[in-house]
Each structure stands twice: as C-alpha cells, then as structure tokens.
Design a protein that fits this description.
The chain is α/β, with parallel strands linked by helices and about 230 residues long. The chain is about 35% helix and about 20% strand.
Length: about 230
C-alpha cells in the first residue's frame, strides 16, 4: 500500500507486478485480492516462484520458505489459488520483457546476481530492456560486446537513462523483503517516453508488519529480515 500510494503520487499510469505476491508476508489474501482487482483494471501480473509453490510443490524450498508457503496454502481459498496458478511467467511489451527471474528459463527461477547470469538472460531475449525481481537486491546490468554485462548498483531516487544503444536488465529489488540492508520497500518507476528508470525506496511501518508476521505464527526469521533488510 505504501508503494502504490507513492506511485500514484508520482503519476504512474500503469502497473506491473513481477511476481512473489505471497510467500513471506502475513496478509496473502489481502495482497492477492488487491492485485487481482488491479489486474482487472489493466495491471500486468506475473508468476513468481513463491506464487507457484503456493499452488504446487514446496520441495526444494529452504525450511523457512517452506513453512511460510505451507501457512500461506492454509490461508488462501480456491479463487486465490486459481489466480496465482493462471499467472504467466513472462510478458513482452514493446521493447520490454517482464519476468520474475531470468529470461533464459523463467520457470527455473535463476537468480541474476552477476554478469554471468545476466549474459544468459540477454541471450534469451531480443528485447532492449528486461525488468525482473527474484533476488530482492536492486541491480542494473548493461550488455557489453566485449565482456560480460556490466553490473551497477543503482542510486535510490536518481533517474537513470536506459540509453537506446544498449540493452539492459533492471533487477528491481523487493517491496516486501529487501535484502540490501535497507528495510524500506523498493519499486521501480519507469518513464516510457524518456526511457528513464528510478529505483524508489518507500519507508513504511516495518515494526508493525514484523509483529504481524510473528503473531500469525510465521517463522520469526522473516520478521527479523524485514527489520534488518538483509
């Protein structure tokens, strides 16, 4: 809600949700219903690995994530599960690809954390810009003709021109579980006319959310991550 309010104040006229609507937080039903309502009004919503696990197999998840997913499965109803299950893995729009993880194999949930993974993702799409999440760490990669893609740590609040003569991968961090030691929620604001991308940090009442995580019986580690941002 804090990010949506900030985006509205900034004049955003469309929304893209890059996946993992559920799986860590204490309000899965609210989140699914709010996002489904926005999808009905034209928002694009993609499937993340935790969304997939919430309506499928929890094998392969670490114990904390598995416990959270099993709890989430008990909270959501058939309509919520159907919404998550029917979400696409990726979507192409104009010169942009939206995907939760990597373009190279969206259903394998590959983390783009270095130039090597970025290189494989670039090879898998002809789109100029790829927007993704999954790692919970904001990052920006640009393609190089002579080496692995260059890795940049974006500066919060500073519009970055995604120059047309290059290709880019924008990893947009996370709204609910940042892992870059900054507990403020993170989202991206992209201007399609100027091709400028801003990584926006939005403070919210982390302590209230952390207490709700604990009160719901979710792993305490998830509450600690919210507070520490790591």
């Amino acid at each position: 809600t804090a990010c949506l309010a900030d985006a509205a104040q900034e004049g955003a006229d469309s929304h893209v949700f890059l996946g993992d609507l559920v799986g860590y937080g204490p309000d899965p039903v609210y989140v699914i219903e709010r996002v489904a309502e926005m999808a009905g009004a034209g928002a694009l919503v993609l499937k993340g690995n935790h969304d997939a696990a919430s309506v499928g197999d929890v094998q392969g998840l670490n114990p904390i994530a598995r416990a959270a997913i099993l709890w989430t499965q008990d909270q959501i109803g058939p309509d919520h599960a159907r919404f998550l299950d029917e979400l696409p893995y990726d979507y192409n729009e104009d010169d942009r690809l939206y995907v939760h993880a990597s373009a190279s194999s969206p259903e394998d949930w590959i983390y783009i954390v270095s130039g090597r993974e970025a290189f494989q993702s670039f090879r898998a799409t002809a789109q100029r810009i790829t927007f993704c999440g999954h790692t919970h760490q904001p990052a920006l990669f640009n393609e190089s003709s002579s080496s692995l893609p260059h890795h940049h740590v974006p500066i919060d609040g500073r519009p970055t021109p995604l120059l047309s003569q290059r290709r880019w991968i924008a990893v947009l961090g996370a709204v609910g579980q940042p892992r870059d030691r900054n507990p403020a929620a993170c989202y991206g604001l992209f201007d399609t006319e100027t091709s400028r991308l801003t990584y926006v940090r939005v403070p919210y009442d982390v302590d209230v959310t952390a207490r709700k995580v604990v009160a719901q019986g979710l792993p305490e580690a998830l509450a600690k991550r919210l507070v520490s941002g790591s």
